[in-house]
Amino acid sequence: MGGMGAYDEEPEAPQRPSGASGPTEAGEPSGARGAGDVRGAGDARGSSDARGAGDARGVPATGAPSEAAAAHKPAANPEPVLTTEPALTTEAVPPPKATEPSDPAALPEADAAPPSDLGPAPAPDPLPPRTGVAALSPAYQIGAAVVLAVVAVAACVHLAMVFLSLAPANTVTKAHGQAVEDWVYPEFEQNWKLFAPNPLQQNIAVQVRAELRAGDGGTRTTGWVDLSAQDGTAIDGSLLPSHTQQNELRRAWDFFVTTHGTDNRPTGSRGSLAEEYVRRIVVMRLYRMPSVREEGTIERVQVRSSTTNVAPPPWSRERVSLQPAYRELPWWQVSAAEAAGGVR
Predict the structure, then answer these.
(1) Which residues are CB-contacts of 249 (< 8 A; sequence separation ≥ 6)?
(2) In terms of domains, do 240 and 319 share one?
(3) Looking at the 3D structure of the chain, how many domains does it have?
(4) In this structure, are residues 204 and 228 in contact, taking their beta carbons and an 8 Å threshold?
(5) Poorest-confidence range of 198-202, 206-210, 211-215, 295-299?
(6) Do residues 18 and 82 touch, judged by C-beta distance below 8 A?
(7) Pair 227, 279 in one domain
(8) Does 315 fall in a domain?
(9) What residues contact 46, with CB distance under 8 A and at least 6 apart?
(10) Burial of 272 (0-12, 13-18, 19+ CB in 10 A)
């Protein structure tokens, strides 16, 4: 049985003595010698393992099979031959390829993403606050839209009426001329005196006096009150003077002059309207004065204009009179509603 055990063990391939050179045995892989040479080159002292040393002394290894048995049984894993001579090869050795690990966890700590020390991500910036109409509630937005629509429609109608009043006679003005005049005159009347070849070079002041009935039944006539001077005083030094202070009285007097002749009689259908317009303005202005309002009730008023030429510049040879010229209108009876202050 002892002999059979020796044959059951796998025989080892005979080793060549350390430092021996020569052709390898038959059946040895082509790369075995190169591998052995590399190993031998790494061992600078040319040492070998114990079995190699034993083979070099000619002492057979324990339990090794006979040479005949080794000849009939091929070596399963022949070991490379160790040698101190460097391997001679003409094949180029490719450089090692750097491979990336498939597992991200296997990455080095240096390549791994650094932990976030900034805490949670900042919240996005809030939206800017809404302004204007967008800041209103839906109900107020609807109300604002309705108001804007009404204003837009009124502005369009006004522009259309003013345009029709200035345009030449056409089908619309022939059919609706009275409606156009009622809308435009007298507040929105347009003229082109500023662009005339000979612009206005006069200062015209509108003055008024009134006949008052006192509480005891007596009457008193006031002095002339310069309404244009009052408007000029209110305008001077004002950054935003009102439209009425600048134009109401002046435009009313222009309207009266263009609709009346030099005898102060109406020349057209709008004469009576111009007269009523001027009278209501002066009565309203008189009632604003405490001295008139406290003395009694206005029964009649009389209006006049004071026209003064503008002095020419010093370098001009033009000579004009600087004395005022007056145009007095007849006394106008004030109605009961106007006398009671109904126009205020």
Answers:
(1) 206, 227, 228, 231, 281, 285
(2) yes
(3) 3
(4) yes
(5) 198-202
(6) yes
(7) yes
(8) yes
(9) 18, 19, 40, 82, 84
(10) exposed
User: So what's the pLDDT on residue 53?
Assistant: 39
pLDDT in tens, 218-262: 889 999 999 999 999 989 888 888 887 888 999 999 999 999 999
Domain that holds residue 203: 191-339
Residue 90 — pLDDT band, cuts 50, 70, 90? low
Decide if 227 contacts 249 (C-beta within 8 A): yes
Last residue of a domain, one of 149, 180, 211: 180
Q: Specify the amino acid at residue 106.
A: A
Amino acid sitting at position 73: K
Q: Share the mean pLDDT of the chain.
A: 73
d(CA 329, CA 264): 7
Q: What is the DSSP letter of 303?
A: E
Q: Is 261 part of any domain?
A: yes
274 and 223 assigned to the same domain: yes
Residue found by looking up tokens 């597992």 in the block: 103
Residues 211 and 328 in one domain: yes
Q: Report the C-alpha gap between 212 and 55 in whole angstroms.
A: 158
